[in-house]
Amino acid sequence: MALTLFYLTSAVAVFATVMMITRLNAVHGLLYLILSLLAVGVLFFLLGAHFAAVLEVIIYAGAIMVLFVFVIMMLNQGQKTIEQERIWLQPGIWVGPSLLAAILFVEMLIIVSYGESAEIGQVVNAKQVGIALYGPYLLAVELASMLLLAGLVGAYHLGRPLKATKTGRRS
Amino acid sequence: MNGIPMEHGLLLSIVLFVLGLVGVLVRRNLIMILMSLEVMLNATGLAFIVAGSRWGEADGQIMFLLILTLAAAEVGVGLGLVLQIFRRFHTLDADSLTEMKG
User: Fold this and answer.
1) How does DSSP assign A24-58, residue by residue?
2) Residues A123-138: pLDDT tens digits?
3) Which is the most buried residue in A55, A105, A166, A171, by most CB within 10 A?
4) Which of the 8 DSSP states describes residue B11?
5) CA B41-A100-A28 angle, 5° bins
6) pTM of the model
7) Which chain B residue lies closest to A38 (C-alpha atoms)?
8) Is B93 helix (H, G, I), strand (E, B) or coil?
9) Rounded CA gap, A37 and A46, in Å?
10) Residues of A in contact with B19 (CB under 8 A)
11) DSSP secondary-structure letter at B90?
């Protein structure tokens, strides 16, 4: 039962990734990438890593994908945007991602109705992760915070308008 | 416990990683390259989760958390770079950026 779910979800993840690579339009690729990430999140849940599954959906499929959507929409300003939107919203494009999302949704319903024993790996709950994270891995948490700060400063510096960078450049 | 063979989880991770690598090498759109990089990072996280689930340790999920922070920082800086490149060169083609000077 759970094995079938595992292989089905793996197939969804691989198929969505292949479709992501072969799309010509970045927005279509983004749709399939979100589905690939969601499928990997279901895999994490099936493997007993509930905390990682939640983080996968919230941060990867939520926050990082929103960043991509923002940038793609920022780069597409202009007169032809409305025409592009009309082309993008044709119903044929939505069939593939919707089908894959429906598969994942049915799997989630099956898992929820199946009860506690849906996992196929050993369950490592969030409490164990938190205890280990703030015990032996405390230095890694500090380093991760430094990395995020560096990323924030770098993104802010790179995101300035072009005029400011020209005047600020030395030679 | 009727777990999956660990090899199958790792095999899926390898397949996803190679797909991401092919995407990085084949595509020339900078945004698609960044998305393929996300797939590669996600595949490495999957390998860590599979190993952590195999031995019932929390270390796998912690490594996944660190990869997650790395991916967040990388995508922030990467998308900032993409915006700068688009402002300066008015294109997203990676092959057209052959004249970069300091």
Assistant:
1) SSHHHHHHHHHHHHHHHHHHHHHTT-HHHHHHIII
2) 888 888 889 889 899 9
3) A55
4) H
5) 65
6) 0.85
7) B42
8) strand
9) 14
10) 14, 17-18, 21
11) S
